[in-house]
Each structure stands twice: as structure tokens, then as C-alpha cells.
Amino acid sequence: MGRNHARVLSSLDGVEFVAAVDPAGDPHGCVPAMLGVPVLREVADLLALGVDYAVVACPTGLHEEVGLQLAAHDVCALIEKPLAHTPQAARRLVHAFEERGLVAGVGHVERFNPALQQLRTRLEAGELGEVFQVVTRRQGPFPHRIADVGVVKDLATHDIDLTSWITGRAYASLSARTVSKSGREHEDMVAVVGSLTDGTMVSHLVNWLSPLKERFTAVTGERGCFVADTLTADLTFHANGAVATEWEALRAFRGVAEGDTVRYAFPKREPLVVEHERFRDAVRDGTGEGSGIVTAREGLRTVQVSAAVLASAHEAAPAVPAVPAVPAVPAEPAVPAEPVGSVEPTQTPSAVRTPAPVPATAPERDPSAPSIAEHTA
Predict the structure, then answer these.
(1) Which band of pLDDT confidence, cut at 50, 70 and 90, is reported for residue 120?
(2) 301 by DSSP, 3-state: which?
């Protein structure tokens, strides 16, 4: 990601890209020599240049250390998502920048995707009516550059942030499951279901295990469904049907019918460029609120929700114990046939009784531990 930040900063109007920091000396050539920008070894070397703001694109576990160092020297910062590796670290960063009146943003670049920008504008205008559900899918191959966090903190934070942003609602409750199949210590896949404060249902499927790369967001409401593809920056609207049907078998179904489909045309600018322009302007104006950036406080909220996702997954209900196999029942002896003309049988065959399965005994649970449904953020 540092390579892309360097590319944008080097050509951003009103900004002078003066230096980059990489303790390893930029072995991957993220800062091309043609830019004439030095690659420094320490953040202290950058601070000595007297910079106005910096972009923090190091491993997540180092965000707090670097961010606090910048704040202590009155340097504004755009910190890549997630803001920090824990809610406690994120809270310390928020406090450090806010108490000094510094602008701090978080690099949730999906907010600046033109498809999602259009989607939010149309939701705010009431074009969908009441919102019922938000569904996201973010799938693709494992990125080998990510080593210190799992798919929840690296990818699911995108969906957590954009869901709250486009709906204007916070998360109220959630439940999650994760799996790890790649041999790493962190999770590779997560499935989340939950609800927002207004009752809107949410569902997120995120993984690094699929060869199919997908970036899908669907918002369903009383007038239809918006579908945003952030890979192509396309936004499509599927309207509820308004044409009456004369087919009797279909008329019995009183649910939603398929209506018109519209794919919108709108300008499509690179999201990272828009993100940097917004942050540049926020630094100039001296405030993050109302500037269109993702503020550090909003980034804290996303870190808190991602922590709740992991907590829910770790405390998931145990698998149901296998029910013992039912033993074979010996055949009943044959009942002699009744004589012809008999009115009452001389013997009533007994019913075959199948042993009832042994009920599974739930493991004892710590009464002080929260239930899955109680994970709120």
C-alpha cells in the first residue's frame, strides 16, 4: 500500500512529497528513484524535516507506536486501516491527536469508491425507502504482504466501516464464525450476521480462501435493491415490480416481484486520489469533522466492532456431541394367523419400541461470560 500512497502523494496538487521511511531501506522499490525522494530509516529522521503530515502505512501492530510519535511532535496523520490492532491502542491514538487539536484520519479507502459514494447519496435521498438489509461479500486470494493480522482486521474492517457509513447507523449486535485453513495463526475466513441500531439486518462474508475476487455490497429496502461492485465501481438498482400479473399461479404470491433494472452512469475517479485530496484539505482547514475524511474516532468504532467479531467467533457454541448409534432391534416373533371368521384376535402384537436417543448434555458455562448475542459494539 505504501507504493500507492507514494505514487499519489508525488503528484498531488498543493502537497510536497519530501521523504519516506522504511527501516529496511525500501527493498521493494516503493519509492521510485525518479521521484528524487529520500528513503529514511527512522521516523525521527522524518520529523527532523519539519513535515506537516504523514501517511502511516506500516504493519498494523506498529500503528500505535508510529502514530503516537507523530502526535507528540504535532504532526497530523493519515493512518492506514485499521486504526490500531486493539480497541485500547486505537483509543490512545484518538486521545493523543484530539488533545493536541491535530487532524487524524483512517485509510478506509472504500468510502471513496464512486459506486459507494453514489449509493450513500441515493440512500440519503430516500430512493430506497426503509432499509431492510445490508449484505457484503469480500473474497479473494491471500495477499502475502499481510502477516500480522487476520482477515477480520485487514478486510472485514472495510465492510464494517462502509456499512455504518452508507446507512448512518452503528452496530447494535452481531454473531460471527471464523476458520483458518492456510496454516497461519490468524483467521482466513469470517461470516458475520448482526443488526444495526435501527434494526437493519447485516451480513458479511469475507475470506482469503477464494480464487474468485469479489467486492459486493447489496442494500435491500422497501422499493428494491442497490448492488455496488467496488471492483468495477458500478452501481445497479433492481426495482420492485409494479406491473400486475394475470398469471393466477403467480398472483397468489404476494411478495416482491421483479421490476426494472438500472445501471447508473457517473464519473469514476480513483478512490485513493479522492481520499488524499480530502485529507489534504482537512489538514489545511485544521479540522477533520465535516471534511469528508474517516476520522480517528470513526476508525476507533470500527476497531471496536472488529474486536467484537473476533470475540464472538472465539466464544462460539461448541459442536453438538455425536448421538450414539441406535442398536438394531431384534425382530418380534411372528404372530399366529387368526382363524377365518374370528371376531376378536386372541393376541395383540406388541409395538416395536426404538430406544430414544440420549439427549446431548450441554457443557457447563461460565455464568459471567457474555453470550454470543450479547456481543455489541
Answers:
(1) very high
(2) helix
Q: Is the pLDDT of residue 246 over 50?
A: yes
166 CA to centre of own chain: 13
pLDDT digits (tens, 9 = 90+) for 255-309: 677 889 999 999 999 999 999 999 999 999 998 777 899 999 999 999 999 999 9
Taking a C-beta distance cutoff of 8 angstroms, is the pair 175, 144 a contact? Answer: no
C-alpha cell at 240: 420492485
Residue pair 188/209 in contact (Cβ under 8 Å)? The answer is: yes
Q: CA 66 to CA 79: how far, in whole Å? A: 9
Contacts of range 280-284, beta carbons closer than 8 Å, 24 or more positions apart: 280/12, 280/14, 280/15, 282/103, 282/105, 283/52, 283/53, 283/76, 283/103, 284/14
User: What predicted TM-score, i.e. pTM, was given to this entire model?
Assistant: 0.80
For the record, the C-alpha cell of 171 comes out as 452496530
Q: Which residues fall within 8 angstroms of residue 356, CB to CB, at 6 or more apart? A: none
